[in-house]
Amino acid sequence: MVAFFGSTDVHEDDPERSVLAGLAIQQAIKGYASELTAQWGIDLRIRVGINTGDLILTSIGDEHNPQDTGMGGAVTVAARMEATAEPGTVLVSASTYRLTESKFEWLPLGKTMAKGLSQPLDTYRPLAHFPDGESQPVPPSQIQPSTELILRAEQARILIEQVERVIEGWG
């Protein structure tokens, strides 16, 4: 899954929103992952990679099924963050870290070599959020997304169906 923050409506806090979304995704998957472990013995943990930067955004498909796709270095770095993240964690690039440093408690992970890139990347793991005006961090388990996912029931059904197919040996 790919999300572009600021692609249609730009917000000054889009980098913070992206990190919050990554942490919320990790929290949200835990309930379903527990069910998979209990029922099938499967350890489901996802990786989230986040980067901030310029990209080319275009719409592909037709008028009945349009889809946005992004291209450019920022997308490549985000994909490398996701690929190198430990399962069950969020990994953030230096560009996002610089814009959100004061909003989260961080674990600096140092430089990471990423496939297809000539230079190592500085990487960071968000541990907790500092809401505006708060001096104590809020752990990921207590972060509440600021908006609901709207009109995603069909996508969630398809995702669950596909995971179940993989479990049954069809993937």
Briefly, what is this?
The chain has 4 helices and 6 strands.
Describe this structure in words.
By secondary structure, this protein is an alpha+beta fold. The chain is 36% helix and 20% strand. It contains 4 helices and 6 strands; from the N terminus they run H-E-E-E-H-E-H-E-E-H. It has helices at 14-40, 73-84, 94-100, 153-167; strands at residues 48-50, 56-60, 67-71, 90-93, 104-112, 121-129. The strands form 2 sheets. A 4-stranded mixed β-sheet has the order 1-4-6-5, sandwiched between helices. Strands 2-3 form a two-stranded antiparallel ribbon. A hairpin with an 8-residue loop joins strand 5 (104-112) and strand 6. The longest helix is centred in the N-terminal third of the chain and has 27 residues, at 14-40.
Q: Helical proportion?
A: 25-40%
- Radius of gyration based on Cα positions: 17 Å
What structural class do you assign from the helix and strand content? alpha+beta
Mean pLDDT: 82
User: Which band does the percent of strand residues land in?
Assistant: 15-25%
Q: Tally of extended strands? A: 6
Shape: globular
How do the helices and strands follow one another from N- to C-terminus? HEEEHEHEEH
- Poorly predicted spans: none
Main beta sheet strand tally, sense and closure: 4 strands, mixed
Distance between the termini: 18 Å
**Major beta sheet, strand line-up:** 1-4-6-5
Number of helices: 4
